[in-house]
Amino acid sequence: MSAFDPKRTLAVLTPDPFQSAHLTRYDAPNLSLGGSNAASRSLAVRGARIAGDRASLQSSTSASLADMSAPNSLLSRQGRRLLQLGIAFILYSSFDGFVVPFFGSPRIGLSVHTLSALQGIFLLAVGLLWPRLKLGVTTSWIAFWLFIYGAASILAAYTVAAIWGVGIDTILLAGELPHGLTRGTAFQETFIKVLAYSSAPTGLASLALILWGLRTTNERA
Question: Which pTM was predicted?
Answer without folding.
Answer: 0.66
